[in-house]
Design a protein that fits this description.
This protein is mainly α and 109 residues long. The protein has one domain (5-104). It contains 4 helices and no strands. The chain has helices spanning 5-23, 30-51, 60-79, 86-104. Helix 2 (30-51) runs parallel beside helix 4 (86-104). The longest helix is centred in the middle third of the chain and has 22 residues, at 30-51. The chain is elongated and about 45 Å long.
Length: 109
């Protein structure tokens, strides 16, 4: 099924909640905690930009960018529940932020 902008925004919202839960883990070092919070803040800003943007969802460009964002979000979800894989999760969040930026690049001006 084709993704809509609303679907993608919700997926990012779920990931933001998971990042909040990860940040609350007592197993994180101070440095990991700060990095999780920094990445979470960056992703939150991208989500807000997506909310404020308009897209032509039926275009191939949108669907390709949407699929990239969905895949990146899936990669985050593979490791986010494992506090021993914080570095992997943070790397995946960076890719998710880049995917959101790519989607924003095709927003209707």
């Amino acid at each position: 099924m084709a993704e809509t902008a609303t679907d993608l925004i919700r997926q990012i919202g779920n990931t933001l909640t998971e990042l909040d839960m990860l940040a609350a883990s007592p197993a994180l070092s101070d440095a990991e905690f700060k990095e999780v919070r920094r990445k979470r803040k960056a992703l939150d800003r991208k989500q807000l930009e997506l909310v404020q943007s308009s897209f032509r969802e039926s275009t191939q460009k949108f669907q390709k960018a949407a699929e990239g964002l969905k895949e990146a979000n899936g990669e985050v979800n593979k490791t986010i529940d494992d506090v021993t894989k914080v570095a992997n999760t943070l790397a995946a969040v960076s890719i998710l932020i880049s995917a959101a930026e790519k989607l924003l690049s095709i927003a209707i001006p």
